[in-house]
Write a structure and sequence with these properties.
The structure is a homotetramer.
Chain A (H helix, E strand, L loop, with lengths): L2 H16 L6 H7 L4 H7 L3 H21 L8 H18 L1 H10 L7 H10 L1 H13 L7 H18 L5 H15 L2
The structure holds a DNA duplex.
DNA sequence: TATGAATGAGTTTTCATTCAT
DNA sequence: CATGAATGAAAACTCATTCAT
């Protein structure tokens, strides 16, 4: 594993375990087994390190969710598949998931990164839009619907990170019942 | 207005606008128009200030939500009334609402305060339980249902603080559709 | 007991038990059961309080030592009597003794007080001077002899505050053997 | 000279000249011509700085005193040699001597350091013990005798730091006369 | 005279960042 | 590229002193 990845991995672990504020650059360097100066060869500042971590993990999350995305099946099937993958990712990557939650509204995340991240959600939009056109999803503002679903599921998974397969399905169907017309 | 309230008000404003980490005690004192030492006459530490702010505002929120709570009407009516009041409170008190979200999982909030806050939600539980007994709410774990609803509505309101009356109703009904059987 | 004495007593106790630095004026006021402001009616500052405490206790010590001082007996008898009373005072007043030691070279004690205190030792000087004239005490600088004796005895008593009567006599005779010719 | 020594030297000077309490870390850094942070690379805290200063200087003192210690000569010769070296050291190192006195009973000195320091005095003990066995030193508690001698000589030297060679001998003989049987 | 809330200068300590090696 | 000693601005917090009541 290369140095850059070591640093990112160390920072992720320490930020989640102890909070970003309580994690000094010195400590990250120690955990990453490199010098402090080395970190500044890869990241301009602590803030950049946080932003890179946020952007890369958010991108990984959506890449995973959408890599098997199949627009040919029914809207409900697409909806269920996407959100189940979202939950699976959260369960398999607890550190990353916790990190993304902790920093999702942090003032440390730059506007630039926030905008890049917002674009990732676009394919998800299209599922809702298609459902609305087909009349099987309520005719409300799409953004509102997505936010509603995301808030509900994220909140549920973070309170219950050891969710069972049965509960995963229940959870996604709960969300579906909310938005279906 | 007394000094203690000035300090709480100043801290709330600055914590939300700039983040807690970026807000020094010196700055809060300046905003509250008092000396730094004065703050330490009212609050032992920055951490206590945060905890008091959290407990008092969470308590105000639930007091407001539940002050007109009427257990004699139907479960759906109770559900709608409670969450509408929740949304109203969020709209009328954006700073307080944002603060409560920001610190809801913060390590700065003490176990003691977390426990006190958890008890406030009890009446809300009973509405869901009653609905489950009557067979009109899905027979899933009550805590999960509450978390689902709360996550969905909180998320929606915080992304759209200027929500219209029509949308408020739509939002609550979206949540209702999710959990109704 | 009047307020002034209460304050002095409280300060003495706390200064010795916890150190002056660790003892705040607030704490002294609490121990003396009066308001902080009240202390400033009796003593201009913390420094003055320390100086008054030092001067008064040093004066009490020498008053006690010298109140039965009898210049008609032999020099050796005078020497022994004085230093035995010194030791007795130290044993009976451990807090006061400790305080006087702690502050004997403190930068907090003003020049003015230091000078006043130095004069108290004058009668003791005369005993040594008389002994030198009689040829029974070594013909060295009197101040040096007094400092030698005082250093030796003070040091001994402070390391062994529960000294027995036998040891008290041994100690004084040790000092006598040093200076006798 | 290296940075660590610069810091120790600066701290020693300022602690003695103005008192520890009146000497801020900022001031020590300025005197040592380094940044404040640098001090914390070498010493964990102000307290540690004090303790290191105390232990190192006490050790230097005893190393100097005992480096020429010769147990083959007479007890009196050993006694005189040791205390003369003690006085020499005090005269040559007035700052260090004053510092050791100021902190000898300070609550800032840790138990750990106190214990380490107490062991240094052991060879001195043996001189007294040997004298007692030979019947040329009074048969009193050895610790008491050592404390008596130390208190007397330390006190004398600190009041008169410009002591002449003649006076040095007189002083040591004064102490010898006290304890000899 | 007695009080204690209010004050802010000053303290120790931390830590992101730099730069000489 | 890699390193970590050096730095000092800034943080949380303390406490002697003041002054309105």
């Amino acid at each position: 594993m290369n140095k850059r990845d070591n640093i990112l991995k160390a920072a992720l672990k320490l930020f989640v375990e102890q909070g970003e504020q309580a994690t000094s650059m010195k400590w990250i360097a120690k955990e990453a087994k490199c010098g402090i100066g080395t970190m500044y060869n890869y990241f301009e500042s602590k803030e950049e390190l946080i932003n890179v971590l946020y952007l890369e993990n958010k991108t990984k999350l959506f890449t995973y969710i959408l890599e098997t995305h199949d627009t040919s099946v029914s809207v409900k099937q697409q909806f269920v598949a996407i959100w189940l993958k979202f939950i699976d990712h959260a369960i398999s990557n607890p550190l990353e998931t916790r990190f993304l939650q902790l920093f999702s509204h942090s003032p440390k995340i730059s506007k630039q990164v926030t905008e890049e991240v917002n674009e990732l959600i676009y394919p998800l939009f299209e599922v809702y839009e298609k459902g609305k056109k087909e009349g099987i999803i309520k005719n409300l503002d799409t953004l509102h619907l997505v936010i509603f679903t995301n808030g509900a599921i994220t909140s549920s998974v973070s309170y219950n990170p050891n969710i069972s397969n049965q509960n995963k399905n229940d959870l996604v169907l709960l969300a579906w019942d909310a938005i279906k017309s």
